[in-house]
Amino acid sequence: MTDYGFGKLNLDAPVRTQIEWKISDQPVAYPDALAQMEARAAAIAEGSASEMVWLLEHPPIYTAGTSANDADLIDARFPVYRTGRGGQFTYHGPGQRVGYAMLDLRQRTADVRAYVRDLEQWLIETLALFNVKGERREGRVGIWVQRGLKEDKIAALGVRIRRWVTLHGVALNVDPDLSHFSGIVPCGVKAHGVTSLADLGILVSMADVDIALKQSFQKIFG
């Protein structure tokens, strides 16, 4: 791990033992990821598998949530997948860390709004480890960064809950090609842009981001 002088990242931070962490080093095709995620969530609901957090990247794609407006798909330059998660259109691609969380809310707090807020806090705490102030915005999904007079989105989230087991999760822009977002209206928000850690001048490896995500997850979810 690279030391950026933040003094916060801890390789030895404990991770809840009953949660399996899976990290994929190569981009995972979206249909394959969806099938594996749904199978694991079903096994968790049946009591035959432990909870899991899966960190991965996808090849360049657009996904449409249950609230997606077709007019927000401006240029379908990449494959488009309709998915059962909440939210609108979003982009996934190399340089973006996706975190799929398959958690059993029956063993935690069976409150969807509280879970979404915890996901937001997970992202906020992760960004704080890189000295980035991520913020919520009323009426806008995701995590935002104030940049002078403008503000840009740095992370997205979308969830689905089946039998009180969660699917999908979060996406943090580490160093993706930001021009790829121009094919959609991200999450239906036209008035603001998107950014990434690299765009903010913070050059970190995906391994560093994974460490931060694990540490922050432990703080929020236990």
What would you note in describing this structure?
The protein contains 3 helices and 11 strands, in the order βαβββββαβββββα. With 222 residues, it is of the alpha/beta class. It is globular. The model is unreliable at 1-17 (pLDDT under 50).
What does the secondary structure layout of this molecule look like, with pairings?
Elements: E1 19-23, H1 30-46, E2 51-56, E3 61-64, E4 80-82, E5 89-92, E6 96-102, H2 112-128, E7 135-137, E8 140-147, E9 150-162, E10 165-173, E11 193-194, H3 206-221
Parallel strand pairs: 1-2, 3-4, 9-11
Antiparallel strand pairs: 2-6, 3-5, 6-10, 7-8, 8-9, 9-10
Structural class: alpha/beta
Distance between the termini: 23 Å
Largest beta-sheet characterization: 8 strands, mixed
Number of helices: 3
- Give the helix level as a range of percent: 10-25%
**Unreliable runs, pLDDT <50, ≥5 residues?**
1-17
Global Rg: 16 Å
Quick description:
With 222 residues, this protein is of the alpha/beta class.
List keywords for this structure.
disordered N terminus; 8-stranded mixed β-sheet; globular; 222 residues; alpha/beta; 3-stranded mixed β-sheet
